[in-house]
Amino acid sequence: MHGSTASTGATSRRRSGSADSAGQTPLAGEAIARQICLRQLTAAPRTRAELASAMARKRVPPEIAAAVLDRFDDVGLIDDAAFARAWVETRHAGRGLGRRMLREELRRRGVDAELAAEAVDQVSDDDEFDAARRLVRKRLPSLRTVEPPVRDRRLLGMLARRGYAAGVALRAIRAEVADAEAFDLALDDSLDDPA
Q1: Which residues fall within 8 angstroms of residue 155, CB to CB, at 6 or more apart?
Q2: What is the pLDDT of residues 124-146, one digit of tens each?
Q3: How far apart are CA 132 and CA 125, in angstroms?
Q4: Neighbours of 28 (CB within 10 A)
């Protein structure tokens, strides 16, 4: 009796579709893959590469992962170009990151180099210079007692870590230091002249 039950179970598995090594049918695997993606997308926007990585960690077969990602792409749940544009906008405005750092972050998130370049191109030279100046302006008061060469080196290092090219960083530092010195002179003059 036990032999016939085991044989019936094996037959019913064969009829319902071939199962993978975990005993899942392709349809069950797709449902799991969709669930993983939806959970990830509920938490935050994700790139196609990030979702593929999440499914790989859960051992979703690559062919199932690719099919689910293609479907999500078709219906607009995944859009790496839109993700890259939004990422650049928020990280540049919010954190003051320079173009080099923005490109690096997008690369780490698996965004195609061409899409990343298009997104980063929305930050103009003037935008980048203005953002660098804002960062210097914010940091400058804490460096008032530091010798100018040390102050400039620290400011340059801070801007470099945020992805600014040396030329942009130096121009921003010079402009902000000149404005701060002009303000200090004007303030001193107004205090010396009580009229």
Answers
A1: 136, 139, 140, 143, 169, 173
A2: 999 999 999 999 999 999 998 99
A3: 11
A4: 16
Neighbour tally for 135: CB within 10 Å: 23
Number of H helices, E strands in the chain: 10, 0
**Cα(127)–Cα(94) distance, integer angstroms:** 13
Q: Compute CA distances 16 → 4, 6, 11, 103, 106, whole Å.
A: 19, 16, 9, 47, 42
Q: Do residues 78 and 36 touch, judged by C-beta distance below 8 A?
A: no
* CA angle, residues 169, 126, 83, in degrees to nearest 5: 95
pTM: 0.74
pLDDT beyond 80 at 192: no
Task: Give the integer Cα–Cα distance in Å for 195 and 185.
Answer: 17
The matching CATH number, chosen from 1.10.1760, 1.10.10, 2.40.30, 2.40.50, for 79-123 is 1.10.10
Domain extents for the chain? Answer: 24-77, 79-123, 124-195
Q: How far apart are CA 99 and CA 102, in angstroms?
A: 5
